[in-house]
Sequence to fold (224 residues):
Amino acid sequence: MNLSQMLQRTFLKGYASMDLQVAEVLLCILVTALIAAYIFFVYKKINKSSFYNKNFNLSLMALAIIIAAIILTIQSNIVVSLGMVGALSIVRFRTAIKDPMDLVFLFWAISVGIICGAGFSVIAVIASIVVSIVIFFFSKLPSSKGMVVLLVNSSTYENEEAILAVVQEFCNAYKVKARNLTREHLDMAIEIDAMEQGKLVRRLMELPDITSASIVSHEGDVTA
Fold:
């Protein structure tokens, strides 16, 4: 089999079972590694302004190559494929993925491994380009401002009405999430949608008996 035929089987026609050559296997693994490297750089670029997990990014590359090797093995022998399915059925992944975008990249790497291992690398290339364009384009769009949490501490519990009056003045919407009362203190946590957060905090500090006022962000729902 010449190089042209191997390239056609790797990118367009798919692999026929039982007749894979070493050169075809190496070409498939190489193409998968190149696409996985592309995923690596896209993930690094997307996460440049947030917490970047290099180990997770490296695992994406390794995962794509491993999946491609598994698919190649399954196609070559029906007995091996049944044993592989039985072995993989006992694997349990317990690591929680908190960022939905990490889950997207994980499925992207798995899909690349499956598609390349089946011998349709051109689909993996096209899909990877389209996915990266979509991610970059929509990541540049302005996002809606999320809700934040206002924490207010007062040395007297009689300040609640005055605090809520100020919050209502500066906020489009608010909701009291927690209220802790003692004989001498009032602690409140209020979820707010405020455009001028600095002015809100300064106005609260002008109230009598307010000891502290702070705003913290959280990973809650985003309001349009």
